């Protein structure tokens, strides 16, 4: 059995992690690969952290494409091979004419949830502008959504399963840069990375528009570190790279911005 109470110490998403520990124990007992539903990024971070030293099991996340935010987790005994082919997923196309009634990610998600499906059965939603969207789901939801998802906002849609080769994923645009700062404060580094004034960035942080490693941070003075991922609503993501200290005791920070 896994050391449940030890694993649950200091986790924020206790209910979700406890459920995943149950599934890990199931994988150990049954010698089968066990799959979770889709997991949000903050939970994924905690799972990786608490499971990294467990020798009894292997874990693998996959959401259909490399940059997927929401992913399913495969869990197996360490002596059973585990790869992406074991993570069962399906892709759907939601096609309609949205030229005169533009739909957002929230609109498509709302329409899907409106059919009665819970959020955990749905992965990433890729909005395609005026022609609709694509969504990654657990396979058992395909037939239901093909018949039940018929409208988004005021627009009639046709929902159908598609091949993975039809998924329209755009590789993120990447810009590398270096900044030198007096501290590792979030507002200073994020303002440099996103090309915003420090006062505007501080306001965005206070307003709850900024996340570090997928967790909302509302203090401009929060200190980031190498390896952190900063996201600003509507602006993309910023990866904190190598950090070194200059002769003048300032921080030279390598940044990668993804749009």
Question: Which features characterize this protein?
Answer:
259 residues; alpha+beta; Ribosomal Protein S8, Chain: A, domain 1; Alpha-Beta Plaits; Structural Genomics Hypothetical 15.5 Kd Protein In mrcA-pckA Intergenic Region, Chain A; six-stranded antiparallel sheet; four-stranded antiparallel sheet; 15 strands; 31% strand; globular
What is the fold's blueprint, element by element?
Blueprint: H1 4-8, H2 14-30, E1 34-39, H3 41-51, E2 57-62, E3 71-77, E4 90-95, H4 105-113, E5 122-127, E6 132-137, H5 142-148, E7 151-152, E8 155-156, E9 158-162, E10 174-181, H6 186-194, H7 198-206, E11 210-212, E12 215-216, E13 229-232, E14 236-245, E15 251-258
Antiparallel strand pairs: 1-3, 2-3, 4-6, 4-9, 5-6, 7-8, 10-15, 11-12, 11-13, 13-14, 14-15
Word description of this protein:
The protein has helices at 4-8, 14-30, 41-51, 105-113, 142-148, 186-194, 198-206; strands spanning 34-39, 57-62, 71-77, 90-95, 122-127, 132-137, 151-152, 155-156, 158-162, 174-181, 210-212, 215-216, 229-232, 236-245, 251-258. By secondary structure, it is α+β, with helices and mostly antiparallel strands. It has 3 domains: 4-86, Ribosomal Protein S8, Chain: A, domain 1 (2-Layer Sandwich), CATH 3.30.1370; 90-166, RRM (RNA recognition motif) domain (Alpha-Beta Plaits, 2-Layer Sandwich), CATH 3.30.70.330; 174-258, Structural Genomics Hypothetical 15.5 Kd Protein In mrcA-pckA Intergenic Region, Chain A, CATH 3.10.290.10. Strand 5 and strand 6 (132-137) form a beta hairpin. Helix 6 crosses helix 7.
